[in-house]
Design brief:
Helix content is 31%, strand content 16%. The protein is an alpha+beta fold and 515 residues long. Among the domains are: 2-189, Orthogonal Bundle (Transferase(Phosphotransferase), domain 1), CATH 1.10.510; 269-311; 412-514, Sandwich (Tumour Suppressor Smad4).
């Protein structure tokens, strides 16, 4: 449980995962919540906001925000640092959520701008914010200050250290710009770095998140083409020259062999007539007599006709293959260049005898020279045969009878560690996994674990163990198959204390916690 904006935040499981917001052990009074905003959030699914459920008990209200399948932004930045392009899209999407909130009569200063309370979808990576309809939010820190703290925290989680987008972002942070200025500046920076096409010049919508990494000829604009010394666009069709000196666009007007066209999937008129007439006749009889058996007969004839028509059209394409070369013009240009290079390449001398005036020594065939004299080989083989002949009569000393026997050897893997996990392998001795002071993240991406690469049921970041204030805690990181402690499932991203001998179960892997 954490405290933020003077209220308590906790995670619960009630037929789904929720973030519970309350004031201490009690709920909120009716006067503390804006009634208009509460009705707006309860009755409408606002895009970019977590759904709100309000429960009333003994004249007290409790707020629950659904967060199933979502991951906090703080955890995402921790394990997956953002690229420059992803950073710009995330900030623009956050501005979109603020604009969408204003359209639903919501106020900016009541949005919760904290890394732990900003959530990302696993599929679209679109942000989801929490909106608190509390009147006490009017007395909190200024919205502009909280916005810049959030953007600064996101900026620290970026992998790149330089770039056009980051330079614009640093300038906006320095001047404490308005969120709308962030949107305009970052979109302009993305266009200058050729990360946005013409179709994505406007507002980035969370469901239109894909930004092309390469521009096709149909999306090239004058702004995306650089100029050469003569003032001609490098990306224009005139700049693509063939080896013969003629442009590709000029060659298209000449007679060139075209690629094989894919056969049509349509049927002939006769085939259509044969298939349609029985269908129409069966449905006509059903419409006239309205009998149940005629309905089933008409459905069967219709399915049969559709199946026959599909197989007939599919049979026309049997044996057709798409040509390997999608552009015969470019293929002919490459072949022409290869012929020119082959003609210009000097031919090697046909005589194998080296030129007396050249400095290159004649080639020597090392395979013809013996690398080891035959006498040495014979001597070595004789020694080997003598050794193996007397091997059975030799005595080997397994250990020194006068040596002192060490009763217990300390485990070097857990030396210096304050806690460890015992992995109970089936039909094998337990394996100790040390837990360092900074903690341990268990998952497939933790390569130094003995089971990470073999367990497909384990998530990439399944759970983590941390040492805080003298207590060991465990936290599930939103794993797909969940984490259990002593048979009780854990709520994702909620901290649970660990005691000596606790049993952990992760994706059919069993551990015992030891301190």
């Amino acid at each position: 449980m954490t405290v933020l904006h003077g209220v308590n935040w906790d995670r619960i499981d009630r037929s789904g995962h929720y973030v519970a917001v309350s004031r201490g052990t009690s709920g909120f009074l009716t006067e503390e919540i804006n009634r208009t905003e509460r009705i707006m959030l309860e009755r409408h699914r606002i895009q970019g906001l977590l759904p709100l459920v309000v429960e009333e008990e003994d004249l007290e209200l409790r707020l629950y925000y659904a967060c199933s399948g979502l991951r906090p932004l703080a955890q995402e930045l921790r394990f997956h640092p953002l690229e420059e392009e992803d950073l710009a899209r995330l900030i623009v999407d956050l501005v979109f959520v603020l604009e969408n909130g204003r359209a639903h009569l919501l106020q900016d200063h009541r949005f919760v701008l904290d890394l732990d309370q900003v959530y990302l979808s696993h599929e679209t990576k679109s942000p989801e914010l929490v909106y608190l309809p509390l009147r006490s939010m009017d007395e909190e820190e200024d919205f502009q200050s909280r916005w810049h703290k959030l953007i600064s925290a996101i900026r620290e989680g970026v992998k790149d250290t330089s770039g056009q987008v980051l330079r614009v972002l640093d300038s906006l942070l320095q001047h404490k710009a308005h969120p709308m200025e962030y949107k305009k500046g970052l979109l302009s920076a993305l266009k200058q770095s050729s990360k946005l096409s013409v179709e994505q010049e406007g507002l980035i919508h969370p469901h239109q998140r894909k930004i092309p990494t390469s521009l096709s000829p149909s999306t090239l604009t004058e702004s995306s083409l650089s100029l050469n010394k003569g003032g001609e666009a490098l990306g224009s069709p005139k700049s693509f020259q063939s080896p013969a000196g003629k442009g590709v666009m000029a060659q298209q007007s000449q007679a060139t062999p075209t690629a094989q066209q894919a056969p049509s999937l349509t049927l002939s008129d006769k085939q259509k007539l044969i298939l349609i007439v029985p269908v129409l006749l069966s449905w006509g009889l059903f419409a006239w007599f309205a009998a149940e058996w005629l309905l089933f007969a008409a459905l069967g004839i219709t399915v049969f006709a559709v199946s026959v028509g599909y197989h007939l059209s599919k049979g026309q394409t049997k044996g057709w293959k798409e040509p390997l070369s999608p552009n015969p013009l470019m293929e002919s240009d490459h072949k022409g260049q290869e012929n020119v290079d082959r003609q210009k390449k000097p031919k090697a001398a046909s005589s194998p005898i080296a030129d007396p005036g050249s400095a290159r020594p004649p080639a020597v065939d090392f395979m013809q020279e013996p690398l080891i004299p035959s006498a040495s080989i014979a001597a070595a083989s004789g020694q080997d045969s003598e050794y193996f002949a007397t091997l059975s009569s030799r005595t080997v000393l397994l250990f020194d009878p006068k040596a002192t026997v060490l009763l217990k050897q300390p485990d070097s893997s857990t030396t210096g560690c304050r806690a460890y996990l015992e992995w109970n392998k089936p039909d094998a001795a337990p394996v100790r996994i040390p837990i360092k002071e900074e903690g341990l993240v268990i998952g497939r991406e933790t390569l130094d674990l003995p089971f990470s690469s073999d367990t497909k049921e384990l998530s990439r970041q399944h759970c983590e163990l941390l040492h805080q204030d003298g207590t060991w805690i465990i936290r599930d990181l939103g794993s797909k198959n969940g984490t259990q402690v002593n048979g009780s499932p854990l709520i994702p991203y909620k901290e649970y204390p660990l005691e000596q001998g606790d049993q952990l179960e992760l994706a059919r892997l069993h551990f015992r916690f030891q301190k």
